[in-house]
Design brief:
The structure is a single chain. By secondary structure, the protein is α+β, with helices and mostly antiparallel strands. It folds into 2 domains: about 200 residues, no CATH class; about 60 residues. The strands form 2 sheets. Strands 1, 4, 5, 6, 7, 8, 9 and 10 form an 8-stranded mixed β-sheet that branches. Strand 6 and strand 7 form a beta hairpin. It is globular, with a radius of gyration of 21 Å.
Length: about 300
Amino acid sequence: MKWCLTDNVEDQVAHKPFVFGIEEEAGRFELGDGGMQAFRVGLSTVELLRKYHAVVTVNPTKTVICHMDTTFSKNVLGYPMYVFGYSDVGGTFHLLCVRITSQRTHTDVAWLLRSLKEKFTSLLNYAWAPTRLMGNADKAQFLGMTNALQPELPLLEYLMCFFLCYDKRQSMTSEEWTSVTFDIYLLHMSTSEADLVNNMDTAHANWEGSRTLRKFRSYFFNTWLAVYSTNHGPRFWKWQVFHSHRGCSYTNNPNEHFNRKLKDAIGRVKKHVPHLFKKWRNWFKKSQLRRHLGYNIQSKPSE
């Protein structure tokens, strides 16, 4: 079948897309129906996996951050589409795979990560062991990562894109929001945990001036700096630059830019899932032949 890998990976055309993460029986894929049996399928190429392996091998002392983002606007069923990739030490985003599932639960995210890890092992004999995974303030992403990989990889950390901290302005004046924005950037640019604590003290004092600011302060500290509160768990607080090594992207903007590029390439009209996969397959092949699946975002690499 044209979607299958060949029996010998060396005979596989490197830029030819293949599906994975699903059972195959008698030459047919066993897909869920989206009901009691979840529909899940991934798409990648051997070249994309080899490229990641090469980046990690050439830079053994550097941290390569993996990025995960979800979009819902590309198929008529509204199934979530995961774009999963990584940023190299030069701040360039590279795609690893795209996935589509009928649900958006931690089980779906765990399936994504486990099946990708299995493909690295079976195709390249490579033990995929990322140490940083950046996503959104998404319970499914966080629990999926901890359930799928953290038991085997205890050093794996979940980083959060700091732009998510910008919601809930809560009727601030433009002057108040300008001041708050400056302080959020100051918190984001903290160079160490000690520096973060000092910047937190500054922000806490600056957000005292009005009832609106105090209300936002309570929300912000309890939500995005919860590790410092005895009433909340440390889940979505690692959005400061000191959690990323020098040269790495420290926002999840790479995925968002790449998603726009992908939507422009395959069209912005919602498609049925089979048609969407055909579009992806054709775009994968053309883009890799032109070497366009590495997207040079230069998205605020840490210094």
